[in-house]
Write a structure and sequence with these properties.
- By secondary structure, the protein is of the alpha/beta class.
- The protein has one domain: 3-Layer(aba) Sandwich (Rossmann fold), CATH 3.40.50.360.
- It has 6 helices and 6 strands.
- Strands 1, 2, 3, 4, 5 and 6 form a 6-stranded parallel β-sheet that branches.
- Strand 3, helix 4 and strand 4 form a beta-alpha-beta unit.
- Helix 2 crosses helix 6.
- The longest helix has 32 residues.
- The protein is globular, with a radius of gyration of 24 Å.
- The termini are far apart.
Amino acid sequence: MASKLTRRHFLGTAGPLAAASAATGLATSAHAAEGERQASIKILGICCSPRPGKTTFTSLQVCLEAARVVGDNVETELIELAGLNINGSIAAGIRPKDSEKDDFLSLVPKLSDPKVAGIIIGTPVYMGNMSSLCKAFLDRCSIFRSGFKFADKVAGVVAVAGGRNGGQELTIRSVHNCLLGMSMIIVGDGPPTGHWGGTVWSGAPGGVTADEYGMKTVKNLGTRVADVALRLSRGTV
């Protein structure tokens, strides 16, 4: 004979079952939250100024600090290219001299790190465009275009010029062209400034960090790169 399920019996058993289900759900949520908290990403800043520790370097420091505070699981690293021998002609298949040191090879492991979810390029403005060091670096990054290894990584650009309107935006868009060719996800500096990237005036009275507007743009850029990279890593974009 089939047992009768009374209302009292149902309510008596539903409570423990619901509690067990809720406990399981909470444990699962806690585990997921813990996994999300522990999963870390890295944002690289590439300083393409031939002068070490100067205005482009300082601007990238500010940018990466803003990226780092987006989350405890955001790591940052600033790489200076100053003093490195990076021959862009090698990207065209031209063999270097036997005595020539190729410092780009030392950067490949850092650029290949699977934790790298975002890259911020910083360059001074020379003759209305990126530095020759920046162009050589980007040309050599063409090795990552094979198989599109940089695809869907987030990218942003900081440009530093001697004038308030000294070609920063033109330079940023020029670097964007290279990054788009590698199928990267390009972001700008985000609100409230919301343009193409970090635009810094190195000639500001009081030094580069006294350029209030420029510092806002680099902070916003760092925040934007880290935020989008984190959301992509979590699958919430």
